[in-house]
Design a protein that fits this description.
single chain; alpha+beta; Aminopeptidase; 5-stranded mixed sheet; globular
Length: 145
């Protein structure tokens, strides 16, 4: 299948949210996730990319940047990544990851992090794109007032 990767547009948001919801990438926060996605579309601190097949969005990914004193540069974080359940997820990842890495490089990142995929087959796909297992991340949930 032929996939094209491009920057997301504000008009893609409904479809992107639908895809990310189906991939359980929004952690049950659909409304908040959609609001943040809309904000990120035009900001330099992030890249929101979509994968199209026959002019239909079949995948999406978000690269967020954070400064790192330890790394001496920005670090890119693959925040969310998802594919339409009807699409070949592995092929969508293969189309999307090189573009997310290119975007990180263009934005001056020295490193790109991502959550370790639970599916070993998907993990090997990530490894083919240069990702290596660096142990699990720690997270802390902060309740907002």
């Amino acid at each position: 299948m032929d996939y094209q990767v491009r920057a997301a547009r504000i008009t893609d948001m409904e479809r992107i949210v639908s895809i990310l919801e189906a991939a359980d990438a929004l952690d049950g926060r659909t409304g908040a996730g959609a609001d943040v996605l809309r904000q990120l579309v035009g900001l330099p601190q992030a890249s929101v990319l979509v994968v199209e097949s026959h002019r239909r969005v079949v995948g999406a990914g978000v690269l967020a940047l954070r400064p790192s004193v330890a790394a001496g540069a920005n670090i890119g974080i693959v925040d969310v990544l998802g594919a339409d359940p009807a699409a070949d997820a592995a092929s969508v990842i293969d189309a999307l990851l090189p573009e997310l890495l290119r975007s990180a490089r263009n934005k001056g990142c020295s490193l790109v992090e991502a959550a370790t995929p639970g599916d070993p087959r998907l993990r090997s796909r990530w490894e083919r794109h240069g990702f290596a297992d660096a142990g699990p991340r720690l997270i802390c949930s902060i309740d907002r007032p």
